[in-house]
Amino acid sequence: MLFENRKQLGLLLAPALVILGLLTVYPILNVIYNAFGEVDYANQTYQFVGLANFTELLDDFFFISAIKNTFIFTLVASTAQVLLGLYLALLFQRQFPGRKYALPIIIYPMMLSTLVCSSIWRSWYHYDFGLINSVLVAVGLPAQEWLFNPDLALFAIALVDTWQWTPMAFLIILAGLQSIPKDIGEAAMVDGAKGWRSFVYITFPLVQKQLMLALLLRSIDTFKLFDKVYVMTGGGPGNATETLSMFVYKYGFRFFNLGMASAAALVMLAISMVMTLFYARKALQGGKA
């Protein structure tokens, strides 16, 4: 046996279990406890209010708006990242001159700190001196208020997230493509399946699990978006870019309404669990409906 007895196994697992309990289990239980109460940290009091916090959330315009913004951002950013990652993976699956030099450049944005990345793009989005508006003006197009236009701000942040995290989807899908036995592609070519037909009937079915994994990881990560919003817009203009994470932060650390913040955090957790179960089921089914 690998371990002589259960006591030895327990001792080896104990440090990891303690860390898991302190950093995961306890915070979740504390959030659940606060979500059903009214917490006053100044007076060290707690009053049980049942579902009142959740009921108030459903009537809160800013909470509904935050849910809408979060889902739009998740859909746009995660879909764009997986599609671009798939395109790049298909491109880098083949050998071409300069491939070994282009690969590090492609994955470079993922290596940057999110705060650094956000700061760079905030300067590029500057109305008067930003790189993007300078290019637009140079080609005869009007400059845009990327982070101050309610219709553009959320998509501007989605572009930043896509630029930074498409490399993750790219690497996952590329690994899937490289795991496909070469004889399958050679057999398909012998049977006359080339180009688009080969991708649709051979390549795509064989990388569906990698595509689902990339979509799952990026959907969960984009769903909990906070840092880019905090750095670039602070949730504005108005509440055009306020996400669920930003909503939780404002209620918890600006308004000190721990009950509402905890209730919103539980809603986020529930939605994330549903998303994870959905993707996991699809992956186990091989991506079939």
From TrEMBL:
Membrane topology (UniProt): Multi-pass membrane protein
Keywords assigned: Cell membrane, Membrane, Transmembrane, Transmembrane helix, Transport
Transmembrane segments: 12-33, 71-92, 101-121, 152-177, 198-217, 255-280
Keyword Membrane in annotation: yes
Localization of this protein: Cell membrane
SUPFAM superfamilies assigned to the protein according to its UniProt record, in alphabetical order: MetI-like
Designated name of the protein: Sugar ABC transporter permease
Upper lineage: Bacteria, Pseudomonadati, Pseudomonadota, Gammaproteobacteria, Vibrionales
